[in-house]
Amino acid sequence: MSAAAWQAPPQALRGVRVLDFSHVIAGPFATFQLARMGAEVIKVERPGGGDVMRRSGSGAHAFTALNAGKQARAIDLATPPGRAEALDLARQADLMVDNYRPGVLERHGLGYEQVKAINPRIVYCAISGYGRSDPALAARGAYDHVVQGLTGMAMLAGQECDPPIKVGFPVIDAATGLVGALAMMAALRERDQTGHGSFLDVSMWASALQLMYPFACDVLSTGQEIARVGNKGFSGSPAADMFACRDGWLALGANTPQHIAALMQVLGVDPQRYAPLLDSGSGKGPAFARARNPAAFRELLAEQLAGHPAAELEQRLNDAGVPAARVRSLREFTQQAVDTGLLQPLVLGAGEERAVTPGLGWRVAR
After folding, report:
1. Which in 143, 273, 328, 355 has the greatest CB count within 10 A?
2. Is 20 tagged catalytic?
3. In contact, 147 and 129? CB cutoff 8 Å
């Protein structure tokens, strides 16, 4: 389908009003998703400072990327006029987002029960680190890397005997925003059917488990720990790993025996050299490849890959049906994606506040 056929996200939330008490990443990212889909989002900030992202070391574009399309409103909740103004906005809202530490908005008369009393149809989404179900944890503050440590994510990265290794970007913050947006969309749809509002408890720890969903299901089902796999693919194939090439690194996904055969043919390796190192399998149909001697197989494969250019191998292997990609930086990938038309960036704001973003992550064709 041509690039011209793709259109902006549907304005499915046109007419929906969102009262947004959120800051930093998770809450603002959730309401940004809603704003991009047509919702009217009123972002409430404290006078004289507002969202800390306005002063981010990354520059003004960091705030724009999370808050473009919203109406900013400075309201001092510590004053009676400010509280009255906020309550009036809550009375007219369809959705309300509370991304402050649990208890903050309650002290200002803006908790769920207080807002529900004046607006029974409100969908109230509370986004926090630990959620509201455990009073002993609810008041704790949280940051992305702290929750990565809490939930086991940092212990899944790296190899056995490595120290904990966090994902190199605020993955849980972003995921919590996406989970929050999805929850609010579902709650709005339910309200359309029942006429009743609801309270949504969205936490960073629960979002982390969604990101680790297959592994979380595994440990819950078996009660066993997950082995750390480092840079290896999750299939367990000895040819699903990252390897050094002549001019960089190659992420290789040769998961099946058929993949490995095609890989070795591209590299010109005689089957008699590598076949004895592999498990012949059960013969019961397609399965992931396994090695009888993983260290020896990896050494052989690493030796063969080391002399080849990564970019050339990426093309040749994919042509042969073997998933592979030269390892790139984020800057290199996004620039290439823009140049080829794969990515059509969304530009928000102007001047110093101009932000170029990857959009919502999905497209619509009509």
Report:
1. 355
2. no
3. yes
